[in-house]
Amino acid sequence: MLNRRHIRVKVMQSIYAMHQNNSDDLQKEEKFLLNSIENIRDLYLIMVSALVELRNSEEDFIEKSQKKHLATAQERNPNKKFINNAVLRLLAESNPLSIAMAENKIDNWTKNDDYILLLLEAVKASEVYEKYMQTTVNNYEEDRQFVTDLFTEVVAPNDKLYEYLEDHKLTWVDDIPVVNTLISKQLSQITPEGRDAFFVPKIYKDSDDKDFVRDLFRKTILNDKELAKEFLDKTPNWDTDRIAEIDSIILKMAICEFLKFPSIPVKVTINEYLEIAKEYSTPKSSIFINGILDNIIKDYQTNNKLIKTGRGLM
Question: Which NCBIfam families does the UniProt record give (predicted)?
Fold first, then answer.
């Protein structure tokens, strides 16, 4: 589920939080970091289950409308294309999704069904829904495209839903785009293979990624002063306290990868942290950081300080 860049972001944010809180409890902060990453699975399940609950809510509404004493002709014979959508039904009947929901105790929409009703209103008011409901016949390819568009254009960008998620867990703010992108991709590729067609992805691609979180966090924190010395003499026109804290953390993490992660190519490290700087620091930070890292690499190469294993890692 997580790529290495997002892992780096989570580590950076945890180190920044430690600095802001003047905390030196490595074990406590590491536990918080790992928990915040594990909690991304809950966010994923909440977002996917929102689609299931939208369908369930509409089905419930239709059934109640049909039973009204003075039901209209339209209420007695409603267009059930939405609740008969093959992909929505597949999600509702998915074994992997149901098991993951139960194991992680995801019941957010049972406790907060008002958000589902608000979402359902937004769905019915959307052009995506209006166009889809022009016929009563279900076709799998159309159903899949509709659900993908519905999630991408209506559900994921919904302001009320975003506010709810942000209030529920603040650490999700930067995780939401990653999770939504993944879900959108899954929906566009889902096949009609039955109750096991939809799968819940793992948090980490493999054990190496999980180890990378802990190792990068620990090695950056435990070598803080030594890593800082590596770039202080590379900034003659800047006082130490003039360097933005985020920039300082990014530099330390990048240098940590140069020196203590021999299997990670230098170019990968530089590119990753420049992109992180563009998103999380000042407008000129990426240029500043790039200049420093470039000088450091030249110095390391001159002094044979850079040891990388494998082909093409320089």
Answer: nusB
**Would you mind telling me the total number of residues written for the chain in this entry?**
314
Residue 83: closest CA among 9, 146, 40, 172: 146
Domain 223-302 bears CATH identifier 1.10.940.10: yes
- Token reading at 200: 């819940």
Q: What is the pLDDT of residue 101?
A: 96
How large is the C-alpha radius of gyration of the chain? 24
Domain ranges of the chain: 39-189, 223-302
> In this structure, are residues 45 and 106 in contact, taking their beta carbons and an 8 Å threshold?
yes
Q: What is the pLDDT of residues 31-74, one digit of tens each?
A: 999 999 999 999 999 999 999 999 999 999 999 888 887 778 78
Round the average pLDDT of the chain to a whole number and report it: 92
